[in-house]
Amino acid sequence: MPRFLLDSTKRASRRGLLGKLENIAVYLILFFLCFAAVILAFPANGQLQGKEIQVISAFLAGGDIAVLCVLWRLKRLDPKTLMFLLFLLGVLMRLSYAAAYPAEDRQHDVFDADGHLQYILRLADTWRLPDSNNWQYNHPPLHHLLAAVWVKVFQWFGVTDQAQLAETLQFLTCFYSCAMLAVVYRIFDENPFGRRAVPLAYALVCLHPTFYLLAGSLNNDCLMVLLFFTAVLYTLRWYRDPSLKNSLTLAVAIGCCMMAKVSGAMIAPVTAMVFVWKLAVLGRERKWRLLRGILAKLAAFGAVCIPLGLWYPVRNLILFGQPLGYVAPIGEDAAIYCGNEALADRFVPLLSPDWTKSLYCDPFEDYNIFAYATKCSVFGETALSGSGVAAATLLVCAFILITGALTAMVYVLARGRSERTTLFFWVMAAVMATQVGLFLYSNVKYPYGCTMDFRYLAPAVLPGAVFLGAAGQRLWRSKREVPQYLAVVLSCVVFLFCVSGVFLYLTLS
């Protein structure tokens, strides 16, 4: 079962059509799990609700963890089985969150007059693009089109109430969040970077609370992150095999990522770096025929990617004069404006009272970016009503892991070895740099509480997890005691982070 559900496309492709069908089956299984969850949790049917879903999920999560512990105790917990159990637990937590909590909780720009939900319902009713760029109508329509199809299916079955349709839409975004787990597994399998490192990194991606929150969010963030990770996967595959197939698949992944949300374009510099790296290697080795062939394939890449990613922004530029990097204006008189605070107070991590005001962030009062993003990464933008001890443990672990990931990135990059592994780590570093760079730039240009939301940094969870795992692997291998102690501490922090997050989100009221 673990090999069937999580085998890599690289290996499965060697088995021809059967292998490809097995890989497609992973996503179909996840999709139908999400669809079945609608039936179990749909309010109109009087089915399982709230606490009942949490109790069932808690038993299933406890069973998953118990199996993991028993196999570990019996010394039969191989890395593939461990990652399979983490995969199941990650899917369970996403389904549980989407099923247990109402659609109106913890949303972003969804229920406004021209918000994401109206965008979706308008497409479902008319199948025509918006005739304005008001508020959220400025976003590209890929997520909204897919959601409109989902809505139409439920309308055919007699579901017409807007609130009920919003409830069902949570399971579409939940599918996006679950599908990320399969994509990230393939990224790690494409470039294995340590027997201990990969499961530790995968645990952080599977059980990071920001992906629970994205699973229940009705806006376009979750689809963008899924396609961003897909583009990272095919960027790495393209370097290994720059075939026309991989070039066009990568073009579609990046183009669709940008068609989900314009900020998905931040994968483009990462991919461009890999293109230049590959061309430089071939030029150094004087493989001119291969180099010319790759240039032709890059032309095909551009012919697909650029129109796919830019057609909607260009449309809005022509129709409404909307700049390509447009962000809907909020205004300095908004309650969430924080541009009047000193830059040192906003950007220096440890010089802010925001750390001690509350466990949770407040977009109307807080202004320190590092404190806000750290809290938001595990709690979202609202105060939670679960265990205070679990929440405090989760926050402390999040702070250690975020600072540790930045330190680990420097440590790992400074100790690169083979070309392939070095490329993998530099791709991860480029993802981290572009995400953090855009985040800081956005907070300088748009100083609002909502701009500090960690959902704008969600793709950075992947490189952060990679560098923490790789650093832990190298610390474990050290023959000195201090590095080995640090590796034990890191493992304990990751364990506490995952367990406290699972406990907190299964006990929210």
Mind explaining what this structure looks like?
It contains 21 helices and no strands. By secondary structure, the chain is mainly α. It folds into three domains: 1-217, no CATH class; 220-328, no CATH class; 334-509, no CATH class. The protein is globular. The relative contact order is 0.10. The model is unreliable at 8-14 (pLDDT under 50).
- What profile does the largest beta sheet have? none
Report strand %.
under 5%
Query: Structural class of the secondary structure composition?
Result: mainly alpha
The pLDDT mean sits at 86
The 3D shape can be described as globular
Key terms for this structure?
LipidA_mod_glycosyltrf_83, mainly alpha, single chain, cell membrane, 3 domains, RgtA/B/C-like, 21 helices
